[in-house]
C-alpha cells in the first residue's frame, strides 16, 4: 500500500469522522456486551458464590429443597459428552473431508459436500426429536446390548440400559458437530496449493503418503480450528442434549447411565427456580460454563498459534 | 392526486384511532403470568371473558416459579401458581398477596408394562414412595404383588421417570409423598424441584410421558388431563380413608370438599392425602395470586369483575370440558366473600 492510499483511509473529512466513530462504536459494542454479561453473571450468582465458594465445583449434591448445590456432575457431564463427541466426530469428519478433496471422483464431491453442509442448518430440537424417536430405540435394542456383551469388562459399558444416557447424548452431539468440522476441514484442505500435492507425488509418494506427510500437516492449523469450532458447539448445545441425556444430577463411570450438562440444567430449571439460592446457583453454573468456554477457546488459540509457529519454522 | 388525498385521509383516521384507542381501553387490560398446568382453562376463560365484556387479559404461562417472581417484582397485575407461596416468598412480596383457588387438578401415575395391557394397577402411598426412593426396584416386588392380587406382575426393573424442570406437578406429587412417607419427608422433602434419589428426568409432561412410553418397565407421574388425553393406563391409589380411588373429576372435587377451611383461611391449603372415602389423594388446587389493594381503581374493578365471573357456574362448567375439577360449593362461597374485600 502506498503512502497516499494510507492517508486517504485515515481521512479528515466530516463524513469520514462520523463513519469512523460509527464503526468504532460497533467494534466496542462487543467487548462492552461481554463485560456486561460477566458483571451480570457474577452479581446474579453472588449468593451462591458466598455460600459455596469453589466447593461448588467439586461437590455433587443438588438439592433445591435443602438449598444445597454442587455442580461437579454438571461440569463432568458437559466435558465428558463434548470430549466423547469429538473423539467420534473428528476421525469421521476428517476422513470424509480427505476423501472429498483427494480421492472422490469429481462428480461426487460437490453433491456430498453440499448435503453434509445442509446438516448444519437443521435446528437442534429436530436432532433431539430424531434422537428420541429413532436413535434411542436403535441404541437401546441393538447397539448398547452389543457393546455391553463385547466390552462389558470395561467399567464404561456396565449397568442398566435406560436408553437416555451420556453415550446417547454424545452420539447425537457427534452427528451435530460433524458437518461443521467436515466442511471447514474440507475448505482448508482445498486451500492446500496444488504444487504441494504434485511435488510430493513427483517425489514418489503414494496418494496416502502425500495426504499423511504433506497435505494434512500443511492444513493442520485450519483443521485444529475446525475441531475447536465443533468443540464449542458441543459444549454449549442444549436442546438435543437435554432430550437424550436423561437429566440426572449424577455422574457415573458407565456411559449407559443418565447424566446432565450445564447448559441442559440451566434450560430445565431456570424458569422455575424456586428459591433465591437455586436461582443464584444456576447463574453460578452459567458463570462456570462461560469461564470453561473462554478457557477452552483460549487454549485452542494458543495451540493453533504454536502449531503455525512450528509449521513456519519447519518451512524455512 | 386523488390517491394522495386518499392516503392522507386514511393516515389521519389511523392516527386518530391509534391515539384514542389506548385511552379508551387502558382499564380494560390485565396482565398475568405463571403456572402452565392450568393454562388451557385460563386461556379459554380469558378469551370467553374477552368476548363477553371486551376486557383483555394477557397471560404468559411461564411456570409457577416465574409467576411468583413476576408478581413479587410487580411486573404483572396477577400471578398464578400450582404450589402455594412459601413464607419466605410471602415476606419477599411484603405479605400483600391473596391466594385464590381457581380449579383443581390431579397427578396420576402411569407406567409401561406391555404384559399388563390396560390393567389398572393399585398403589398405596408407602409403595409409591418406595418406588421413587429406589427401595422397590422390581415390578414383581412382594409389596406390589400384595396390592394387586390376581395380576401377574413381570420381573422387569422399575425405571423411575420424573420431571427435570421445576414444576407444580412435582410439587403436588412430592407434597403427597412427604405426607405418606416419613422417609421421603426427611430424605427428599416437598418442592417444585427436589433431589430425586433415582430415575431419569424428562422435561414437562410430554417429556415424562415420552420417556415412559419408550422404556419398558418405566413409571412416571403426569397430570390427569395429560394421561387421559394420551390414553395410557393410570393407577388407582389408596387414600387416607383406606379406599382405592380412581382419579377423576369427582374424586378430585371430593378431596377439595373434605378439606377443612377455617373462616379466616388464606386458601394456602394442601389437599393431598385428604380425608374422605371418595377423595383421590394426589389432588391439588391451583391458585391465582391477587393483590388485595390495587393502585389503579379501574384495574381493580376489572380484576374483581373477572374473578366474580370465574367462580360463577358458567365459567366453572367450562373447566369440566377440559378435565379440570370445578371448585366445590363451600369453597366458592368462601372465595366469593374474599373477592368482595378486594379494592
Give a short synopsis of this structure:
The complex is a heterodimer of chains A (316) and B (343). With 316 residues, chain A is mainly α.
Mean pLDDT of chain A: 90
- The CATH architecture classification of the largest domain in chain B is 3-Layer(aba) Sandwich
> From the helix content, strand content and strand pairing of chain A, which structural class follows?
mainly alpha
Uncertain stretches of 5 or more adjacent residues of chain B:
1-7, 9-26
**Level of helix content of chain A?**
over 70%
How many separate helices of chain B? 14
Using DSSP, what is the number of strands of chain A? Answer: 2
Characterization of the model:
The complex is a heterodimer of chains A (316) and B (343). Chain A is mainly α and 316 residues long. Helix content of chain A is 75%, strand content 1%. Chain A is built from twelve helices and two strands. Chain A has a two-stranded antiparallel ribbon. In chain A, helix 2 (14-44) packs across helix 12 and helix 11 (262-269) packs antiparallel against helix 12 (276-315). The mean pLDDT of chain A is 90. Chain B is of the alpha/beta class. Chain B has 14 helices and eleven strands. Chain B has helices at 2-25, 39-53, 64-72, 87-92, 125-133, 142-147, 168-180, 182-187, 204-214, 224-230, 249-258, 297-310, 313-321, 329-340, and strands spanning 29-34, 56-60, 78-81, 98-111, 122-123, 159-163, 200-202, 218-223, 236-238, 244-245, 283-290. An eight-stranded mixed β-sheet of chain B has the order 2-1-3-11-4-8-6-7. The longest helix of chain B is centred in the N-terminal third of the chain and has 24 residues, at 2-25. The radius of gyration of chain B is 23 Å and the shape is elongated. Chain B starts with a helix and ends with a helix. The chains are: A mainly alpha (316), B alpha/beta (343). Chain A binds chain B through residues 61-66, 68, 132, 136-137, 140, 160, 162-164, 242-243, 246-249, 258, 260, 268-269, 271-275, 278, and chain B through 62-66, 88, 157, 159, 164-167, 188-196, 199-203, 207, 210-211, 214-215.
